[in-house]
Amino acid sequence: MSLEPAVAILQQLDLFAGLDPVRLEVVAFTCERREYAPGATLFTEGDEADCAYLILGGEAVMLARDDAGSPNALRLDTGDLIGETALFEPGKRRTTVRAVTSLYTLRIGRDMFQRLLGEFPEMAGSVAARLADRLNAVGAELEDLRSRLAIQGKKGEGGNE
Asked: In 4-160, at which residue ranges do the beta strands (DSSP E only) sit?
């Protein structure tokens, strides 16, 4: 498989925004390509999380359980980045991911990703900006939740009259 399809998909990810195509070729060349047969497991909940997977082709399903223990499934396909947090910190997988069809991925290892951040300052700046945006979004969601809970608390107090 040539590098062009992988580079085209990498260009669409916020994580790699700001990198010119030549550097994206380095990323695509450096990462390991993996192919999975339908039904094969990429990783299982509880596995060590040391990489992310970019789907270059095919479909997968992410299986997880909600707080009540009920199963949930999320369909994944070309262009989806799976396990992105593993690029930033060690941890355990919180989900299981299985191939639904023949699946072609780019395995992005944490060590390699961290080296790229050191070698390409514009990438590090882009990643920092993206993480800041995510933190702002989470802060806004928490503020919204706090407001809704405060309103519900007041309604509960008023309902006792």
From this structure: 32-36, 41-43, 48-49, 51-57, 59-65, 71-77, 81-82, 91-92, 96-99, 103-109
